[in-house]
Amino acid sequence: MTLRVTGGGVSLTVQGDAVGESDGVLERLAADGVPAALMAGNASLWGPEATDEAAGRLGWVHAPERSRRLLPRLDELTERFAGLDHVVLAGTGGACLAAEVIARGQGADLTLLDTVDPHQVRRAARGPLDRTLLVVSGAETVETDAVRRVFERAFRDAGIDPAGRIVVVGPPGSPLDAPGHTFVAADPEVAGCFGALSAYGLVPAALCGADVRRLLDEAEALVPSLLLGYDNPGLVLGAALGTAPANGRDRLLIADDGSGPLGLDRWIEQLVAESTGKDGRGLVPVVVEGPAAPGFGATRDVRRLVLGDPADGTGLAVSGPLGALFLLWEYAAAVACRVIGVSPFDRPAISESEEALSGLLRGAEDGTPPVVIGCEPVLVDGEVEVHATGDMLEGAKDLRDVLDAFTHAVPADGYVAVMAYLDAADDTTGLRPPLARRAAHERDAQAAFGLAPRLLHSTGQVYKDGPRTGVFLQITGAVTADVDVPGRPYSLGTLQRAQAFADLRALRTRGHTVVRLHLRDRAAGLARLEAALSG
Predict the structure, then answer these.
(1) Phi, psi (deg, nearest 5) at residue 112
(2) Tell me, what DSSP letter sits at residue 227?
């Protein structure tokens, strides 16, 4: 069976079991008036317990219209900062990933720092500073505070007034909305993973030269279709996603066929993970290299998604202009959460990790470095230290034995998630495919890969509080060129270590299986790990 729905430039194809599994739910959603209620910002759609929180989080449904109020301000800022063509974005979460997707799609130059890896931040802060503009987007976290302070010092050291080189996007009343800062107030009813078309995503994109008017036009063209009870691509997609877990398909495999916006797969990953993954339920998104990638076609009981043209047996295929796709996916995620029975807006595991991080850093103020249970390695293979608790690795003699034991710990039809606290420039591209082949062959499981700490603020939610079918491989690396954080009693290296340990503690507290690999030398350690995976 095949169902095709189009609207506002978007094309959605649903094939196979996904059609029958979602048919009755679609009828119920339409009969309940969900499309009109959602686009009207009805906060009761996810039940009485979620109503209060949802009431202040639904501004994104009006973003195609409301965000146009930003355009005169964006015109003024782009004119003021003309000539500053090295735009660096410091932030966390989905809106920052959206800004990166927008920039890539239009050939604009944007450097995203959703990490505190000292090597990566140091490289970005070297400039060229005479052409650098820093945008700090979102509520100020420990991470964005640290990056901002490092850049302020770099500007001063270069004889540049930081006040003329930093733009802050935040909620009204932010402490950074003060004299000396260029501040852009964001819609207070938009936050987190639903902010692609808000100031959080649009301001950095516009400042690096992207045409955000076009995005809003594309999104607005989709709005009439999202009001329909039938032939509504957002409703159909949301139903196909939301019914998957109840039918034994709690993993969403995402493959870009090369025709869509670069990076959109990672943006969808964080949106689906953060919104649906809680109360032991949700969809675990797994981004793969393409439709022919290891693990995409062989595993049963998954929901498959191709970004681009449909292929026989895919399950779901979506294409369209970027602005419309942002709104489509936000709408579909909200609908899926209603079907699954969770609130799309709370993120308890993410909040817990952030609190644990703050606790570890308070220790740093007293000169105590962040530590975690099991800090002594259970095994060392070349430049790779292996850290684990329990007896899972009993008898392991080398890294290959460790990976064998780790793979066998994956539940049948489960998944492996690699969380790499490394520099984006570290060559990690060879890790997921061989791990995926192992997982699919031995356990009929999937393998996800993500750079941290971006996953702390997104996919970490489903890893910790979603379906309990995952095992986790955390990778940390030695810091060879640390960076002090001005005005704080810790360095970026200490902060990165604390992030990893906070994440590790949160996973272990929930009883998840976690192995940490620490690379004493990053390049040599990654090479050793890749060799062990391929053996």
Answers:
(1) -90, 125
(2) T
